[in-house]
Task: structure prediction
Amino acid sequence: MRRLHSPDVEDIRTWTPPVQEDFGLLLQVFVAPTGSDGEESFDVVVCTHKWFAEQTARKPFTLGRHYLFVLGYDYAQLVDFIRRYVERPAAATWPELATIIGRLGRWEFEDYRASPGYRAGRRQSNPSD
Result:
């Protein structure tokens, strides 16, 4: 795990919710394989049960994927939990590891499929062009 960021708050480290037992925020977890220069994001909504219930009260169905339920906001505990979750699994390849981490938060490349006609970042020639 490289870093955490939330577009919902100015500073995720010092932020305090107005009501500890009633908040939700988008958290972006940036992760990369050891030795890699880049990083990829995994998005998870960190929220309390009360906030989730209020957000979904009038919906007949709600999928719970990519939600992390907490009793209150504690940055140190949150970092510890996420770091252990992200750094615990072992996988042979980065895509395999990203799929495992993707159970916590939506991987930015989760549904990515290479476009037909492209290979290794270059478009293959098309006889009709």
Strands lie at 3-5, 24-31, 40-47, 67-69, 106-107, 118-119, 122-123. DSSP finds three helices and seven strands in the chain. The helical segments are 49-56, 75-87, 94-101.
